[in-house]
Amino acid sequence: MDATWLKPIVETKYLSTENAHRYRAILRYFYIQHERMRQYLFPEEVYAFLKQHEEFADYTEEELQQDLDQLVKWNNLIARQETSHVRTIEEFKKKRFRYQCSPYTVEIERMIRTLEQLGDSFGGSLERTRFDRLYASLSRMETIIASDFQEQPDEMHQVWEETFDYFKKIIQNSADYIAYLHGENLEERMTSESFLVYKEQFTAYLRDFIVALQKTSMQIEQLLEDLPEDGVRQFIEHVVDYERSIPRFADALPPRAVQIEEKWETWRSLCEWFLGRDGRESELSFLQYQTNEAIRRLTRVVQRLGERHHHFRSRKGDYLHLARWFSRLESIEEAHCLSAVVFGCFHTKHLVADFGATDNIYRDVWDEPPAEWVTKPRVRHYGEKKKPQAIEDKEREKEEARLRYLEEKAREEAELKQFVTDGKIVLADLPEVTPYVRKTLLGWIAKAMGREGQAMKTENGWVVNVVNKEGTICLLAEDGELVMPNYEIHVLSRGE
């Protein structure tokens, strides 16, 4: 008999002990978030969830912390100290924790939920073929809807069951495997030298899954967007009618409208998992991100292990090989060439010119004149010869430079004014413009888009408001063409 059969399972104590209702509510919330691929939770999130229910109206944060500590002792939760945003030593000493479900707890909660809902079994993996099967099942549904429901009701019911059977398995298995990749035990194993044996298998497994996911998920997304809502509702009605036609003994079925609405919500959850909702990122995108992050983490671990391995490696063999290579060369010139390739240049010189740049932020580097650098001899007693000179009056040059600057600014403002029509600049109607106008308009748009109300004051005193229209335009300039969103710049005031 295996000795593990006789050991008590402390992870199940929370089901029947005192305050079991509090422990079960906490762990059910952890399990739900685990299914949504959120492995780590802070106590504040758990407390906010519990306070939404009347049973926890008098529940305090101190009681929550006590319950969390007890669940950690029973191995239901894994506590990890949060150090990513610590700014002081005092904050580090407070030991702010975030918590993760243990594998035992996930399995226990899933078993309880299975008993409650009679769900399907699962296994943690990233099966790339399930997306292909889901796409094939959705394609059959699309064919049935397009044929005006020519198939038999039992066939439609089978298609519905297969579709959501694949969907459930994708969610459960991927959530379990992603949690496994973020587990503490795997991180400890990854730091050992034995991990190098499995790294190729891990990376190939994840890479193949990502390739299959990217290939099939786009087809599924397009198919879900093309399916008409009326057709899907009729399909659901046929499925519900078939389920209600199955003979049952004295089992009271819920109303037909309730069953249809439940299945419609199930369908919406499938669409939201692939397409997202209200501008939020879909769970499919999050799964791709998590898998890519796992590949990057594995790559970094392998790199660190490789660096540790090569740190103590002797370079004697490499140097002997180079020595034999040098000894076979016929001339010193060839030896110099080989040395330059192997060791680089020994006498590289970097020249730096101290040249004052222009104040014009729109002036490019290649528009500046070349700088000259005068070398000075490196001798101890060298000193530059200086002759006393009178202070020159350059007031006239300064005034001329100021007038040139004002004339240039006036010309630039006049150039911008000619594009204002009915108090606005329509970028779609502009002719070919100069690089200065293009850079100025793009600068206004960039500053306005980052402010509330998309309004800002320009450097020449104008108050403008940027309005984004539908579509894209092509802005023509002397130095090229720019494809950009369709913006209009409304001039509210010219500062006159």
From TrEMBL:
InterPro entries: CHP02677. This is TIGR02677 family protein. Pfam families: DUF2397.
